[in-house]
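Retro notes, item 3 of 5
We never archived the inputs for the DQA complex last cycle. Fixing that now. Sequence and ligand:
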Amino acid sequence: MTTAPNPTPRILVLNGPNLNLLGTREPAVYGATTLADVEALCRDAAQQKGAEAECRQSNHEGQLIDWIHEAGVAHRAGQLAGVVFNAGAYTHTSVALHDAIKGSGVPVIEVHISNVHARESFRHHSWLSPVAAGIVVGFGVDGYVLAIEGLLRKARPAP
Ligand code: DQA
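Structure as it came back at the time:
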């Protein structure tokens, strides 16, 4: 008996406010890699794992919420494994993003390029962490690759 091949798992990579400035923004903290480089890294990492990554960035909380809602619908339809999300400073302020993740039911891996716990105390609290499926912090832009790998492992655990 032949079995149908699994459809290619899809991942949404979301970046929030100020991450469009990667490459020029505080390079001592965030490195010299641009957002375009990070997005290419994510697409390559997903492809190497037999998946597909779509990347989006917005500086607007409402736009990020709309995308999380959309991701929830796609996840329920079996069309999306989940979301890799660097919410930038909204991590520390946004009850609305917490509610969107919880309400949509989509698995979200929270990513931070820097080790937020080694920085100012206002970065130590995350509204996303309690509703995240996993958290990757402080690995530089490699954190996005680790998050993609982790999300795919959760979506299809090793036999
Ligand atoms: C960040 C950490 C946040 O505290 C900050 O506001 C960012 C980037 C990170 O990737 O390290 O914008 O999420």
